[in-house]
Amino acid sequence: MTDASKIADDLRALLARAHAPYSGVQVACAVEGADGSVHLGVNVENAAYPQGWCAEASAIGAAVSAGTAEFARVYVASSLPGHVWPCGGCRQKIFELARGGCEVVSLAPDGTPERRTIEALLPLAFRLDPATVRRG
Length: 136
Fold this sequence. Notes:
Layout: H1 4-14, E1 27-33, E2 38-42, H2 55-65, E3 71-78, H3 88-97, E4 98-107, E5 113-117, H4 118-121
């Protein structure tokens, strides 16, 4: 397991790279692969709402691009006070690549973690079996 306090420090430093000129809310995310690799992302807003990227989506894209196909843990931090959690769309994105019991860790500005499983954050979730999805 990755050291949550180091991840919290890394994400606090990464918040400054978020592109949030409209909401002013900076979000950073770290995705930990089942192999122990860590991939980072920040939110990237643009004027054509809702075409921006959540930090979770950015980190997931980085992880998948690097070849990480299964997640053990996802960390989220923001410039807001208290704990933040992924939006519904990002919960589904995480669930698609999460191994069972994947932890989502919300880090408060002081680094205090709160943990939930992705199953607790996305009850009654579903997965499509790619082998059974009808194609063209």
